[in-house]
Design brief:
- This is FGENESH: predicted gene_3.339 protein.
- InterPro entries: Cu-oxidase_2nd, Cu-oxidase_C, Cu-oxidase_fam, Cu_oxidase_Cu_BS, Cupredoxin.
- It comes from Rhodotorula toruloides (Yeast).
- The protein is mainly beta.
- The protein folds into two domains: about 5-105, Immunoglobulin-like (Sandwich); about 150-315, Cupredoxins -  blue copper proteins (Immunoglobulin-like).
- Helices cover about 5% and strands about 45% of the residues.
- It contains four helices and 20 strands.
- The protein has a six-stranded mixed beta sheet, with no helix packed on it. It has a five-stranded mixed beta sheet with strand order 1-9-8-3-6, with no helix packed on it.
- Strand 4 (about 35-40) and strand 5 (about 40-50) form a beta hairpin.
- The longest helix has 6 residues, at about 195-200.
- The model has no long low-confidence stretch (mean pLDDT about 85).
Amino acid sequence: MPELRFPPDARVRLRFVNAGAHPVNWVSVDEHELYIIEADNTPTLPVPVHRISVVRAPSPTTYSGVLLTSGRRIGDSFYLRAQINTACFGAGFPDLDPQTPLIFRIADEGHRLAKTLPRSRDWNDPTTGNCTDLDETVVVQHAPPQAEQISVFNSSRIGPLTTTDEAGLSDGISFLEWTLNNITYENFAYTPLLHQIVRGEDPNTGRIALITAWNVETVDIVIQNLNGPEHPFHLHGKPFWIMARSQGSVGPETIASLDLNTYNPLLRDTLGLPSGEWVLIGLVADVPGVHAFHCHIVFHQAQGLFGALMIQPDVIRKLQDPGGELP
């Protein structure tokens, strides 16, 4: 079994990232609280928790938790556990073992210790239930500027649908599509969207859900999960503040009156959005480019759950197209 060794009377910073395909995993250390001090490179007030809910994300440091080894003796050992939140599954998997442990052992450099298994006890906190991310009210004060533009990404599912042959008869093949703003993404493999903008072309907005910020401005985006499972949504290139979230859906007539958290919103690049919920994120559109926005479950991307935030297209058009064929 894998093993980590830490000295006694120390403060150890552990960084956790969910590199699997499942949207939410729990991590915990038996009989030790973890003090969250950072989420996606955003410093947070030290918050003691028994378990950290880690959403599937590409960022190198999703969460940092400080582990205190004070009061422990050389040779003491405990389990560090990673466990799938099985409540996020749409169906049961009776043969699945949802937990993977490793051993954390107290040892100074040079100590040779017997590799005995720990007798530590797991926390009693539930490891199933709401398929949600960390409570977003635990961070340091940070007040984003007021938005100058409000846009919406609506996520929904089409299907399962059954394909038909040329005679219009069912061929028994079912498929599923995901949409953003009723658009299923189609790949631009040989004509990248960025290259289209550089060449002065207008992008085909029937093939991708696109939000455009023309100037350096503050943009609010409402993301709604209308009828799918939990999605870990990720935006490339621009961290965003999580300003508000709730169950249900919101329309244009209610967005302006939402109660936003401008005191201490969490700055993230990925968020988990359960089914039937919405979230309002805010960002400063100051990095020109075409920034991908997508669900980080890969087969959801392949089924079309992919959009983009285009920032300052007039600046992009001043770039030089490198030319040549793409590899």
